[in-house]
Amino acid sequence: KQRSEIEKQKQAITDSITYARQIQTAMLPPDEVLDKLSLNHLVYYKPSDIVSGDFYWMREIKDEIAFAVADSTGHGVPGAFMSMLGISFLNEIISEAHIPEAHEILNHLRSSVKSTLDQTGKADEAKDGMDMVICIFDEKNKNLNYAGANNPIYIVRNKEIVRHMAD
Fold first, then answer.
1. Which of the ends of the chain has fewer CB neighbours closer than 10 A, N or C?
2. How crowded is residue 130: how many other Cβ atoms within 10 Å of its Cβ?
3. Residue 120 pLDDT > 70, yes or no?
4. Sign of the torsion angle spanned by Cα atoms 39, 107, 61, 137
5. What pTM value is reported for the model?
6. Which residue, among 38, 134, 130, 26, has the nearest Cα to 78 in the 3D structure?
């Protein structure tokens, strides 16, 4: 009887998390949006758990394309909560604040996360957040504006790889 009850509880939890995956996946840029861009790209998104702390994000801003790749603190459900915060804040920052520089978007996102999670910098509190790369690409002028939080960017140009460190 106990085994049966535990199996029912496990199934209910798994079903709930599986449904959460549908919500999380719906917040990622759809393939059609990515495909209509003239950028050569590859997206490999395969969560190790049902839901993920990793996410990618993209928005068109006038004649530019803003995109980000992030690895949130935590795996599974805690990471998924962080990724949902990250996606929501990025959408809010772009639609409301109209911030034109990648580093300003990243700083604004950092402030939003710290404020929401009530992070004050005390030694004993959780250090939840996300490692991220955010870029704004101006296709017309072939200009890439980059900012990174613990993640570098690699640029391949003329068969040479250039690494730009995050700060």
1. N
2. 24
3. yes
4. negative
5. 0.85
6. 130
Neighbours of 84 (CB within 10 A): 18
Residue 134 DSSP SS3: strand
Q: Which of 9, 93, 95, 80 is nearest to 50 (CA)?
A: 80
26: number of Cβ within 10 Å: 8
Is the predicted pLDDT of residue 14 greater than 80, yes or no?
Answer: yes
Residue 54: closest CA among 32, 27, 92: 27
| Sheet hosting strand 143-149, strand order edge to edge | 54-61, 64-72, 130-138, 143-149
53: left (phi over 0), alpha (psi -120 to 50) or beta: alpha
Average pLDDT rounded to a whole number, residues 73-88: 90
Nearest Cα to Cα of residue 25 among 82, 80, 72: 80
Lookup: tokens for 17: 């998390």
Asked if residue 160 lies in contact with residue 145, where contact means CB atoms within 8 angstroms, the answer is no
> What is the length of the chain?
167
Phi/psi at 135 (nearest 5 deg)? -130, 150
